[in-house]
Write a structure and sequence with these properties.
- The protein is mainly α.
- It has two domains: 97 residues, no CATH class; 145 residues, no CATH class.
- A two-stranded antiparallel sheet has the order 1-2.
- Helix 2 crosses helix 4, helix 6 packs across helix 8 and helix 7 runs antiparallel to helix 8.
- The protein is elongated.
- The chain starts with a helix and ends with a helix.
C-alpha cells in the first residue's frame, strides 16, 4: 500500500508538469502507455486501464470490506459497478491534481473525458486559472443554472483545441501563456482558421475561440499585475492591441 501511495503521489505531481510514465497494476510491455488511458482505484491507489477498471473494482478486497461493513460511500445497488469504478477514479484523480485554491476545478475535471484535451487542462496553469475563475463565478451548486458548468467545460475544451492545433505546426510544448503574446498572434489566427475549417463552420458560428482568447488575456494581465511582472503585462497588452485592431 505504501508503494502504491508513493507512486500515486508522484504521478499526480508530474501530471501537472508534463508527460510521465504511469506505474500500472499490471505491466504491459507490448504497447506504450498513454497516461490519459489510466485511472486509479480509489482504495488501492493503483492505476488500471480505464476500460478494465470495472473488472478490478468488482473484486477489489478493500471495497468489498467497506461494502460489507456499511462504510462504503458508493452504493452497489444504485448503479453498475463498471460506472462506479470509473467515476470514483476520476473523482480521486481530479481532486488530487487540483490544488487547494482550485477546489472548483476538481468538479469540472471529473466531468471531462481522459484525452489530450483534458491533459492540457491538467498541465497548463493559465487555462487552469481561467477555468477556476469562471467556475467560482458561478457560485455554489445551489445557485448555478442548468448548463453553467457545461458552458465552462466547452470553453475550456475550445481553448485546449486551439493550443493543440498550434502545437501541431509550431511547438509541441507551447503553453497558453507563451501563445498570448504579440509575436504569436499570427499563430492564434492560423489555428482558429484551421479549427473553423475542421469543424465546417465559420468563426462567427458561436464556436469561435476568440471570446475565450480575450478572456485569457484578462486572466494573464491579472496574474502579471499581482506578481508585478512588467514583461508579462506588456506581452498581454501588445497582444490585446492586435486583438482589438484586427
Amino acid at each position: 500500500m505504501l508503494a502504491n501511495e508513493g507512486n500515486y503521489l508522484h504521478y499526480t505531481t508530474v501530471l501537472q508538469r508534463g508527460h510521465s510514465p504511469v506505474v500500472t497494476a499490471r505491466r504491459n510491455t507490448k504497447s506504450t502507455r498513454d497516461v490519459m488511458n489510466y485511472l486509479p482505484c480509489k482504495h488501492w491507489k493503483r492505476f488500471y486501464k480505464k476500460e478494465m477498471l470495472w473488472h478490478h473494482y468488482r473484486v477489489c478486497s478493500p471495497r468489498q470490506q467497506s461494502v460489507s461493513s456499511g462504510t462504503a460511500v458508493d452504493n452497489p445497488a444504485a448503479k453498475p459497478v463498471r460506472n462506479q469504478g470509473i467515476a470514483s477514479g476520476r473523482l480521486l484523480l481530479s481532486s488530487s491534481v487540483a490544488g487547494d485554491s482550485e477546489c472548483q476545478l476538481a468538479d469540472l475535471l471529473t466531468r471531462m473525458k481522459e484525452d489530450a484535451v483534458k491533459e492540457i487542462v491538467l498541465q497548463d496553469p493559465l487555462i487552469r486559472r481561467f477555468a477556476c475563475l469562471w467556475t467560482e463565478s458561478l457560485g455554489g451548486k445551489n445557485h448555478q443554472k442548468l448548463g453553467d458548468v457545461y458552458r465552462v467545460r466547452q470553453s475550456v475544451k475550445t481553448l485546449n483545441r486551439l493550443l493543440i492545433e498550434t502545437r501541431k505546426t509550431h511547438n509541441e510544448t507551447m503553453t497558453m501563456n507563451q501563445l498570448i503574446t504579440a509575436n504569436n498572434f499570427h499563430l492564434v489566427v492560423q489555428a482558429s482558421k484551421a479549427l473553423s475549417i475542421e469543424k465546417g463552420a465559420s468563426l462567427e458560428s458561436g464556436k469561435s475561440p476568440w471570446p475565450f482568447v480575450t478572456s485569457m488575456t484578462m486572466v494573464k494581465s491579472g496574474q502579471a499585475i499581482r506578481s508585478k511582472d512588467d514583461e508579462q503585462f506588456k506581452e498581454t497588452s501588445d497582444f490585446r492591441k492586435l486583438l482589438d485592431s484586427e
